[in-house]
Sequence to fold (457 residues):
Amino acid sequence: MKQSRKILIVEDEHGTRELLKTQLEGEYSVRSVSNGEEALSYLKDSPCDTVLLDLNLPGISGLEVLDRLAAETESMPTVIVVSADTNINTAVQALQRGAYDYLVKPFSIDELRTTLTHATQHRYVVGTATRQRSRSGTSQKFAGMIGNSASIRRLKQDIEKIANTRGTVLLTGESGTGKELAARAIHELSNRAKGPYIRINCAAIPESLLEAELFGHEKGAFTNAIARREGMFELAHGGTILLDEITEIDPSMQAKLLRVLQEREIMRLGGKKTISVDVRIIATTNLDLKAEVREGRFKEDLYYRLNVIPLHIAPLRERAEDIPELVEHFVRRAARENDRPVPEISPEAMQRLCAHPWPGNIRELENSLERSVILAEGGAIDADDLRLDVDEGVSTGGADMNDASLTIRDMEKELILRRLNLTGGNRTRAAEMLGISVRTLRNKINQYRHEGITIPS
Ligand SMILES: Nc1ncnc2c1ncn2[C@@H]1O[C@H](COP(=O)(O)OP(=O)(O)OP(=O)(O)O)[C@@H](O)[C@H]1O
Ligand SMILES: [Mg+2]
Fold:
């Protein structure tokens, strides 16, 4: 039930505005306005992740909008400036005023998509710290990690023990078990807590952009490199960098990363000098990395460099005693965020929640409870309201989730097929619901196709 990213289009030309809107709708939640004043007043009440800003506007100019956004809004959205102006000075001015990127008209929709993916990723990286903090409260130890089961207690002890070292951490666990949360907890408990915490979602950044994103680039290193930009490793200096879904990077990047891990220095794209960085590296994966090495998909020497401190998070079904406390927490939060009274949960409902296998782990529990709170409309939540079997109605002709002989892989496949069914084959939405990247989803779909399975579309 996560909202899609919000984009505001600021464009005076009616045709262009409508065209952009139609192209981006579905993937993003899109709003549009036709001038700068409207944009500023809209953004005051409705923060957006990304703004697509035309420079040449009636009334106040795009550059002025940038200035006022920086001065008047609490958190500056990621702004992509679009303009027919090819003058490099204009681009520089826009970037100096805080724009994230500059697109010269006319541009192809693919070009725009790539820039947006990059920009939303950037937004997520910069936004994570504050967003997570406001959700979990500032002073919570372990970043608000809930759970008192033996495995979570052990995890917390390990995190405390290793937080103040610089040793590279490899966090493993199924999707939605809380790897990202654990990474944040490590950072917050470390003596780097006041330093930056930067998360790179390796699966979300297009391969072609990853190197520049990680290592930065000099001016003129490639077309569009109109200014020097520092990479994430440099920005994370003195802090922690999270390489999320590390298996998603290709072999050549694996080799480059290995060098950073060995030398603790980087070189910007197009640069000549090495820059040393003091960074704690945390990597995550929901795959069996050793198996990836065996299959030749992941470099063995990189694996050993990453696996200095291995931490594993158990799936939720193996720590069902944590469920009641998690339920309490998520129900309260969903009620607060959706402006509903906190509903009672019937004992039968709680029983069902504790017995459910939760293949999507805590993320699935969280989403499921948010849905229940909304559907309960302020009343109590009963076992039937949970709709834990709601998807079973949409038969995929596949596995019965209660079948005791099912493997995790069977369950995963079944869940993926159900989500694709539910979303009418929309991969972006299905991936979002599943809490995995579109790329991972695509890979799984390809595997299933090889097995001769028909994919809902
Ligand atoms: N122990 C916990 N207590 C409270 N919330 C948790 C806990 N573990 C996870 N969560 C919440 O569950 C959601 C999923 O967690 P997170 O993103 O850390 O999982 P992940 O292991 O990184 O998943 P993926 O492999 O899909 O990226 C997040 O909203 C997170 O805040
Ligand atoms: Mg994660």
